[in-house]
C-alpha cells in the first residue's frame, strides 16, 4: 500500500485522483488544497466542478480510500508519492509577463514539501510546466538539510474538460518521464505501476524528463493549431461560398490528417491552450528561436481574430448597429459539458457586444454562476438568465457561443415568434439545422458557410 497525495484539488487534481482511488483500492489517496471552500465542496454532495460521471466516481471511493483535506503538513509528511497539480497561469508581472508561466504556486509547493517531509518521496509534476522545470524542482527539493532525497517525475495530464473521467479511465496514453538513473527509473516504475491498475501497459509511455515536459506543451500547441487552421479556412469559406464543414470532412478523411479537432468555431477557449502556447513562445524566445516563436504565436493571434470577427460579423449583418438591441448569447462555458468559463470565447463575445452597447442576455445550463462572477465589472449591462426561451424573448438576435447539445433541441419556431423581426441567428458552433431555421424565418449566419438570409442581394458579410 502507498500513501498518494495530490496537492491542488482543481479541475485536474480532483478527477484524476478520484479515478486513481477507484482503481487502486489498496492505496490511500488524499487531495489537499489551500482553498478550504473548495475542499469543503469536494467533501459535500455539491462538488466544486461539473464533469459527467465524476460524482459517481467520487462517491464510490470517498471516505474509503479517497480523502479531501485542507491539512497539508501531516498529509505531506505521511505521503510516499506526491502529485503536484497546482495552477500554472500566465505570468502577469515582471520578466516574461503575458507569456511565461507563473511558477510561484509550483515553487511554493516544492518548499512546502521539503519543510514538512521526514522521509524520501517521489514528487510528480502533474501541472503543465515549461521544459526543464524538473531541474529547478530537484534543486529546491534536494538542497534540504535533512539528508532526504526526492525523485522528480513528469506525468503530464492530457484529459480534456467535459470528458475528464472518460479520458482518465481510458486514456489514449499515459506519459511518465524520469531521470535515466537507477533511482529515477525506479520512481518512473512506481508511477507506471499505479496506472497499470487500469491502463493497458502498451498505452503507458516512458520517456526522459525533458521529452515528457515538452510533449505536454507540444500536444496542446498542435491541438490549438488545428482549431486555428480550420478557423482560418472558415474565413475563406465565408468569402468564397465554400462550406467549411464539407472542407473539414473532405480533408479529414485523409488518414494523415484525421477528422478530429476540425470543427470551425468562434475560437478555442479553456484555461490551457492560450497559456501553454504562450509559454512555448516564451521558451522559444528564451532560447533565441524567434522565428519558431512567431510561428506558434500566430495560432493565438488567429484565435483572437476569430472571436473579434464573430462580433463584427454580427454588427455588420444587423445593419451596422446593435446599440440597445437585445442579443441573447447561448452558452458561457468555453465548451460543452463543463461549467468552466476560463478564457471562454462566449465571454469575449459578450464583452465585444457590450462595447457595441448591445443589451446582452446570457444563458447557460451549468456555467451561469461562474460567468456572473467573471462579468462582475459589466454586470449592470448583462442579464443572466437560466431559461434560453426567456433569454431569447424580445431579442433581435441569438448568438450560439457554446456547443451545448441542449441548444440544438430547442423549439426555434416558438422562439422565433417571441423575437423582434427580422430575427437573426449567429451559430458560432455550427450545431443548429441552418436550413430549418431559415425556413422558419431566421436570417442565419454560421461559421465558414455562406449566410442564409431573407434579404435581397445579400452578400457574404465581411
Ligand atoms: P485549478 O486552478 O482548477 O486547480 C489548481 C488548484 O491548486 C487550486 O484549487 C489552488 O487553490 C490549488 N493550489 C495552488 N497552490 C497550492 C498550494 N500551495 N497548496 C495546495 N493547493 C494549492 O487548475 P487545473 O485546471 O486543475 O490545472 C492544474 C494544472 O494542470 C495546470 O498546470 C494546468 O495547465 C494543467 N492541466 C489542466 C487541464 C485542465 O483541463 N484544466 C488539463 C491538463 C493539464
Ligand atoms: C485541452 C486538450 O484537449 C487536453 O488534451 C489538455 O489536457 C487540456 O487542453 C489542458 O491541457 O488543459 P480542453 O481545453 O479541456 O482540453 O478542451 P478541448 O476539447 O481541447 O477544447 C478546447 C477548445 O477548443 C474549446 O473551446 C473547444 O470548443 C475548442 N474546439 C475544439 C474547437 O473550436 N474546435 C474543435 O474542433 C475542437
Which properties best describe this structure?
single chain, 462 residues, alpha/beta, 18 helices, 43% helix, 14% strand, elongated, binds nicotinamide-adenine-dinucleotide, binds uridine-5'-diphosphate-glucuronic acid
- The overall strand count is 14
Described by strand count, sense and barrel closure, the largest sheet is: 6 strands, parallel
How much of the residues is beta strand, in percent?
Answer: 5-15%
How is the largest sheet built, in terms of strand order? Answer: 3-2-1-4-5-6
Task: Break the fold down into its secondary structure elements and pairings.
Blueprint: E1 3-7, H1 13-23, E2 28-32, H2 36-43, H3 54-61, E3 66-69, H4 73-78, E4 81-84, H5 104-116, E5 121-125, H6 133-142, E6 150-154, H7 164-169, E7 174-178, H8 182-195, E8 204-208, H9 209-240, H10 244-252, H11 273-286, H12 290-317, E9 326-330, H13 345-355, E10 359-363, H14 368-374, E11 382-384, H15 388-392, E12 397-400, H16 405-408, H17 412-418, E13 424-427, H18 434-440, E14 443-446
Parallel strand pairs: 1-2, 1-4, 2-3, 4-5, 5-6, 7-8, 9-10, 9-12, 10-11, 12-13, 13-14
Helix pairs in contact: 1-3, 5-6, 9-11, 9-12, 11-12, 12-13
What features would you describe in this structure?
It contains 18 helices and 14 strands. Strands 3-2-1-4-5-6 form a six-stranded parallel beta sheet, sandwiched between helices. A six-stranded parallel beta sheet has the order 11-10-9-12-13-14, sandwiched between helices. The chain has helices at residues 13-23, 36-43, 54-61, 73-78, 104-116, 133-142, 164-169, 182-195, 209-240, 244-252, 273-286, 290-317, 345-355, 368-374, 388-392, 405-408, 412-418, 434-440, and strands spanning 3-7, 28-32, 66-69, 81-84, 121-125, 150-154, 174-178, 204-208, 326-330, 359-363, 382-384, 397-400, 424-427, 443-446. It is α/β, with parallel strands linked by helices. Helix 9 (209-240) crosses helix 11 and helix 12 (290-317) crosses helix 13 (345-355). 43% of the residues lie in helices and 14% in strands. The mean pLDDT is 96. The site of uridine-5'-diphosphate-glucuronic acid (UGA) has 20 residues, from helix 9.
Amino acid at each position: 500500500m502507498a500513501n498518494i497525495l495530490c496537492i491542488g484539488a482543481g479541475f485536474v487534481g480532483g478527477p484524476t485522483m478520484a479515478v486513481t482511488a477507484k482503481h487502486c483500492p489498496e492505496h490511500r489517496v488524499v487531495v489537499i488544497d489551500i482553498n478550504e471552500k473548495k475542499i469543503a465542496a469536494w467533501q459535500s454532495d455539491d462538488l466544486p466542478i461539473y464533469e459527467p460521471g465524476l460524482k459517481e466516481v467520487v462517491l464510490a471511493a470517498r471516505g474509503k480510500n479517497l480523502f479531501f483535506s485542507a491539512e497539508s503538513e501531516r498529509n505531506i509528511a505521511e505521503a510516499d508519492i506526491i502529485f503536484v497539480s497546482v495552477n500554472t497561469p500566465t505570468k502577469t508581472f515582471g520578466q516574461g509577463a503575458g507569456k511565461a508561466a507563473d511558477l510561484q504556486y509550483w515553487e511554493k509547493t516544492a518548499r512546502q514539501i521539503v519543510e514538512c517531509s521526514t522521509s524520501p518521496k517521489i514528487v510528480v509534476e502533474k501541472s503543465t510546466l515549461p521544459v526543464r522545470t524538473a531541474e529547478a524542482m530537484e534543486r529546491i527539493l534536494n538542497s534540504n538539510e535533512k539528508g532526504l532525497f526526492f525523485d522528480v517525475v513528469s506525468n503530464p495530464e492530457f484529459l480534456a474538460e467535459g470528458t475528464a473521467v472518460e479520458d482518465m479511465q481510458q486514456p489514449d496514453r499515459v506519459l511518465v518521464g524520469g531521470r535515466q538513473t537507477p533511482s529515477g527509473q525506479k520512481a518512473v516504475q512506481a508511477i507506471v505501476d499505479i496506472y497499470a491498475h487500469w491502463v493497458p501497459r502498451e498505452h503507458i509511455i516512458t520517456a526522459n524528463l525533458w521529452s515528457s515536459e515538452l510533449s505536454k506543451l507540444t500536444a496542446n500547441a498542435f491541438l490549438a493549431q488545428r482549431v486555428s487552421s480550420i478557423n482560418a479556412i472558415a474565413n475563406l469559406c465565408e468569402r468564397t461560398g465554400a462550406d467549411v464543414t464539407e472542407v473539414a470532412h473532405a480533408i479529414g478523411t485523409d488518414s494523415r490528417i484525421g477528422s478530429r479537432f476540425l470543427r470551425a468555431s468562434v475560437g478555442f477557449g479553456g484555461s490551457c491552450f492560450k497559456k501553454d502556447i504562450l509559454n512555448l513562445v516564451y521558451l522559444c524566445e528564451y532560447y533565441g528561436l524567434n522565428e519558431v516563436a512567431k510561428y506558434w504565436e500566430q495560432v493565438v493571434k488567429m484565435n483572437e481574430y476569430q472571436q473579434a470577427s464573430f462580433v463584427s460579423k454580427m454588427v455588420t449583418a444587423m445593419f451596422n448597429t446593435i446599440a440597445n438591441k437585445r442579443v441573447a448569447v447561448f452558452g458561457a462555458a468555453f465548451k460543452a459539458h463543463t461549467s468552466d468559463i476560463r478564457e471562454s470565447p462566449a465571454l469575449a463575445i459578450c464583452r465585444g457586444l457590450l462595447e457595441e452597447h448591445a443589451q446582452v442576455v446570457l444563458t447557460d445550463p451549468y456555467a451561469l454562476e461562474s460567468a456572473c462572477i467573471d462579468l462582475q465589472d459589466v454586470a449592470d449591462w448583462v442579464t443572466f438568465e437560466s431559461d434560453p426561451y426567456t433569454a431569447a424573448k424580445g431579442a433581435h438576435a441569438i448568438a450560439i457561443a457554446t456547443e451545448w447539445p441542449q441548444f440544438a433541441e430547442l423549439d426555434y419556431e416558438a422562439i422565433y415568434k417571441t423575437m423582434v423581426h427580422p430575427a437573426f441567428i449567429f451559430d458560432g458552433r455550427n450545431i443548429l439545422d441552418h436550413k430549418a431555421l431559415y425556413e422558419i424565418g431566421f436570417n442565419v449566419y454560421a461559421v465558414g458557410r455562406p449566410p442564409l438570409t431573407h434579404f435581397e442581394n445579400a452578400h457574404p458579410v465581411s
